[in-house]
Amino acid sequence: xxxxxxxxxxxxxxxxxxxxxxxxxxxxxxxxxxxxxxxxxxxxxxxxxxxxxxxxxxxxxxxxxxxxxxxxxxxxxxxxxxxxxxxxxxxxxxxxxxxxxxxxxxxxxxxxxxxxxxxxxxxxxxxxxxxxxxxxxxxxxxxxxxxxxxxxxxxxxxxxxxxxxxxxxxxxxxxxxxxxxxxxxxxxxxxxxxxxxxxxxxxxxxxxxxxxxxxxxxxxxxxxxxxxxxxxxxxxxxxxxxxxxxxxxxxxxxxxxxxxxxxxxxxxxxxxxxxxxxxxxxxxxxxxxxxxxxxxxxxxxxxxxxxxxxxxxxxxxxxxxxxxxxxxxxxxxxxxxxxxxxxxxxxxxxxxxxxxxxxxx
Length: 361
Prior knowledge:
Shape: elongated
Largest sheet: 5 strands, mixed
Oligomer: single chain
Number of helices: 16
Strand order of the largest sheet: 1-5-3-4-2
Order of helices and strands: HEEHEEHEHHHEEHHHHHHHHEHHEEE
Radius of gyration: 27 Å
Strand content: 5-15%
Structural class: alpha/beta
């Protein structure tokens, strides 16, 4: 039994763990990469104590040489404001310089990176708002987020997140709506280039690009033909946007100008202004107020989507007409749900399982 234990020890690194102050760590070896100040600042701005890994240290001649974790120690030093701060270190006592360099060079050689789909699903399990909102929006169109291309599935996960972050919830909603209405789930209609192209068009032309016209004219052409035209014009989603715009403008009395596609910039995130506050100081009749919270707008969007599952007969376009999201706080981001007073349907707050709604109707 003892012999077997000794054999197994061959697979256990001969290390010990210590808390070592950052000032006593050295990372100036020639094999080390240059320190990225931007990376350190970005990581410090999103600091999470549970994301810190032990620093790998080789102790030679009484000096603690860091061969994995130089950015980690700088992030901790920046966020703590002191190089006296200790960090957990995995200390090797039996390495020479050439071994350190070899370990450094090959440390990522057999590491499998997380795929966008895997990261997305982990965020779903963590209950993170952004991913939950995107998932619910996709599922409201009877689609699903998948790891590979399949009927009724969207595997361009990074693209969904990028459109949501860059253009906003309503643009992503319109992109999905146009894709579903125009090609009815045809293969490649939910590709990254196609989704990004429609988002570009929505950002450039807004409501001047009519949904019915888009469906009627662009829907006459297969996704394969649009892809062929796009490749002939230019690479990437801009080529797809041009191909879509060509079809949209065919035999049109009021064509959408091509130059606007290249000159229209991505809208900046809207900041609350004094003018906005004065316009929203009074509470309109028939509104449901959410308590002010840093994530109120996303919570409100989640409520809209959750109501679809509560009321399966109500499809998403109707829910959009039923609810409106607007800022309603001068001190912190918040959201207000407006009930459409002309609708014959009344969805009660209790039905949506939200305890933070006050009904003023």
